[in-house]
Amino acid sequence: MTGGNRNDVTQLIELLDRVPPVRGRVGRPRRRPKTLLADRGYDHDKYRRLVRQRGIKPVIARRQTEHGSTLGQHRWVVERTFAWLHNRRRLLVRTDRRDDIHEGFLALTCCLICWNRLEASFS
After folding, report:
1. Cα–Cα distance measured from residue 113 to residue 123, given in angstroms and rounded to the nearest whole number
2. Helix axis angle, 71-86 to 99-122, nearest 10°
3. How many Å apart are CA 39 and CA 88, to the nearest integer?
4. 85, pLDDT greater than 90
5. What is the DSSP letter of 105?
6. Which of 74, 92, 94, 118 could cross-link with 86 by S-S, CB 3.0 to 4.6 Å?
7. Alpha-carbon dihedral 108, 86, 20, 45, rounded to 10 degrees
8. What does the DSSP assignment read for 68-95?
9. 1 pLDDT band (50/70/90 cuts)?
């Protein structure tokens, strides 16, 4: 967890290294995802190269290019989830000094979001 004034791209490689095994098909689980979807904020050759070294295909929008890469269709899911998380004021305006308390409320909120989604799908 970093401060709010840190650029997200500086934490990209550490985040990729911490991704748990991807479950799915029978057999040995994949250790890493196949692709990385990112917006223009992550457009830097250094990070593209580091992502490729880990066996992940970077799908990152280029700066100074036209919109229409269809990345927005996939990113919308992430942005929607952030909006759900920010509906909880305690997560939007972080006042907790300890990381473990903040992460606990984050996990609790994710559980509530999943519960609400499941409840809505069965009714």
Report:
1. 16
2. 110
3. 25
4. no
5. H
6. 92
7. -170
8. -SSHHHHHHHHHHHHHHHHTSHHHHS--
9. low
Give dist(CA 3, CA 6) in Å, integer.
6
Distance from C-alpha of 118 to C-alpha of 121, rounded to nearest angstrom:
5
By 3-state DSSP, what share of the chain in percent is helix, strand and coil, each rounded to 5?
55, 10, 40
- First-to-last CA distance in the chain? 37
pTM over 0.70? The answer is: no
pLDDT tens, position by position, 6-64: 677 778 888 888 877 767 777 777 777 788 888 777 888 888 999 999 888 988 877 77
